[in-house]
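Crash report, auto-generated. Payload:
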Amino acid sequence: MLGSIYALVALGYTMVYGILGLINFAHGEVVMIGAMIAISVIVAIGTGSGLPAPAVMIAGIAVAIPACMLLGALLERIAYRPLRDAPRLTALISAIGMSIVLQNVAMIVWGRQYISFPPLLPNEPHAVLGATVTGTQVLIVALTVVLMGALLLLVHRTRLGRAMRATSQSPALAGLMGVNVDRIIMFTFMIGSALAAVAGVMIAGYYGQAHYHMGFMLGLKAFTAAVLGGIGNISGAMLGGLALGVIESLGAGYIGALTGGFLGSHYQDVFAFAVLIVVLVFRPSGLLGERVAERA
Amino acid sequence: MPRLPIPAGMSDAAGRSPLAQGALLALATAALLLAPFLVDALLGRAWVRVLDLVMLYTMLALGLNIVVGFAGLLDLGYIAFFAVGAYLYALCASPHFGLHLPFWLLLPAAALVAGLFGMLLGAPTLKLRGDYLAIVTLGFGEIIRIFLNNMNAPFNLTNGPQGITMIRPIEVAGVSMAKAHAIGPLSIPSLYNYYYLFLVLTLLVVFVSARLQHSRVGRAWVAIREDESAARASGVNTRNLKLLAFAMGASFGGIAGSLYASFQGFVSPESFGLMESIMVLCMVVLGGMGHIRGVVLGAALLVTLPEALRYIGPLQRWLFGQVHIEPSDLRLLLFGVALVVVMRWRPAGLWPSAIRHREFAAARATADNAVTGHRTGGSADAGSAP
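Recovered output after restart:
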């Protein structure tokens, strides 16, 4: 559940990383902006018209996705393209700078308070096979599965996907083969941002609120998930996201029992990070990561 | 802003005569000694405090510079060692446990304990490289913070999110740093005391850093940074040296942490979040990674910039007649813009070392000649790839 959201965000990280070798620190902020825009649209429409709830919801997402794609393209253009030949830490600092900028722009535009998500989604619990699920949860999981399937198709079955894979292997050679590298990189950012927008709407809908600071921790967790799965690997990001979500929920539930009541559920993040460290110590390139030759 | 200290024992790259060097050194010494008086007179007492913080963060940034700049190990959880030093001092010199151990005992202890934590982090991460290392260090930093935040039950060790208050100020040879002292006609307020204490320790850290850089160990670190496999093949004991880099960097952080605790008189887990780690990393990269003077400049700038940006409010009023956007909202925004802009125009940092500067010029030239004008971040800039 939480895992599928992590997975969606992790995809954005892993795709950019696969091509540029860059941690896009501002990605969590794109998620946040997506959520904010969707909420603004939904609130604006929802108050006046008598449209049915799903239509309003879809309108919100439909505005948030292109807005985030534009934002992703802008980020790439302003903060990353000029630095493509610079060392990676330079680009990292630039990404951090953009992240701070976006956060504060959002704070100025939407204010410091929590913004509540209008109750559009079905939230009455259903009992399925002894577990309790809500309509929102089903919706989120279903949408994630669909999006991931679409992404895998895109990457493995289309010309654009082939160009993306070629660019990630060697930008210079891909360029020689007639791939417009700049455009492919921009597309990658845009696809990642579109997924981020959906994830943003989902998480805002799930928790019923959004906040200008929400992107930071989410981005961190999603990045962790991407690394857990093997960064640069698309299926790895999905697996890592789901695994992290499950680990966290289980950790929060059982950590007290495991340690004899010594550690409580507020240690759930410790649990997640500890699992991450253990996994990386035994599989230094993540769960699905290939054993890349060490860089010279 | 204080003049940059010219560390003793560093060769003069500009090729100045000994006389000019001596004059420069005397000038720098005078500037550093008079800095708090000048700043106080020109800008006000609040800026003396900023000056103290500059010193503190310089120590911290130089510590991280050993790990990131010299050895090329990207550490995103560095603030954890700062936290360890701060909490060690806080626990041993406050009413929380009723302990009041002296400063001269706690300072080395903080360095030692933080160094041990550095080894603790270093040991499991020896095999990891690049971003995998970054994410593990990040996780480590968060783990430390979460423990500090929650260790008030079942046994109250850290007092949880409230933090520890009433930490005793530093006393050196019976002279308390928290009180004003009179030397002849001169009255030296508390903030000045801290300034001079921090100045001495910062110069010590600068000196140690400079000596380390040019030592056998420092050269081995650079070899690891440039190419770990080649370094190992050439007989460099990469395991021990990487552990040493973590331990040294961490102990500098621990020292800065214990000073911070006594300076603030208060510590809480809030001060040791990921954002702080990133801030220190920004100081190192923005200034010029691996270059001591650059890092000092980076620390000085990044501490003073947010303070200087407080004047946006009055500036707006002066320009437009009223305050359009709350200055506190705009402060961080402009800070972020500054980071992006500096990296955009000076990708090697504001004050890179001469060698790195040349490397960059060369890399630029090759990049322009390449067919696509594009190069992956991997192989060609091995000097910076963590």
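Post-recovery validation: The two ends of chain A are 40 Å apart (CA to CA).
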